[in-house]
Each structure stands twice: as C-alpha cells, then as structure tokens.
Amino acid sequence: MSDHQRIDRQVAAMHRVIAERLRSGDLTPLERARSNLERWERQFGGVLPAAYAEWVAILDSSPESVLAVLEGDDQDAVRIRSSSPFTGVLSPRERWEILRRAA
Fold first, then answer.
1. pLDDT of 16-31, one tens digit each?
2. What whole-number distance in Å separates Cα of residue 10 and Cα of residue 42?
3. Which residue, 20, 58, 18, is CA-closest to 37?
4. What is the tally of structural domains in the chain?
C-alpha cells in the first residue's frame, strides 16, 4: 500500500467517526465545520478557495449529501475530504487512535 493510499484510508476513518456523531444527532461537527470555513474565508480576504467553497455548498445542502461525502468511497468523496473543514472535531487522542487503527 502506498503512503497516499494509507493517508486516504486514515482520513476516511476519521470522517466515518464524524459521520457517526452526526447520525447520533450531535450537530457539533457541522457547527465546527461552518465556523472553520467562516474563519478561513476571513483569512483569505473574503473569498474561499474552490475546495472550501465546495464544502460550503455541501454543508448548505441536505444531511444526506454531507454524509455521502463523509462516508463515500468514490473519487469525488476522497478528493473533497482532502480539504476537510472538520478540523478540531476530534480530540488529539481520538485522532491518534484512529490513525493507529487505520495504519
């Protein structure tokens, strides 16, 4: 397995945990993602790079669309997750455990 494949698998595992939280009714991940995107928009002078603007559209759409990206195995989902706005949703301990298991 290449390093790139390993990283994609680890990123997918982290996003599946976030999807589980959303399915359980915890909306904190969505709030954090929106907050991150708003902060990044300010940092970029009011215009988000295309990858982050795509996330704004996804978050503004249906919950099913968000879950499809978080849990999807297709190339689009993998590509979109590589610019994830969910930074800070998982604790460092959770991240390390997921990374360890997915390695």
1. 999 999 999 999 999 9
2. 29
3. 58
4. 1
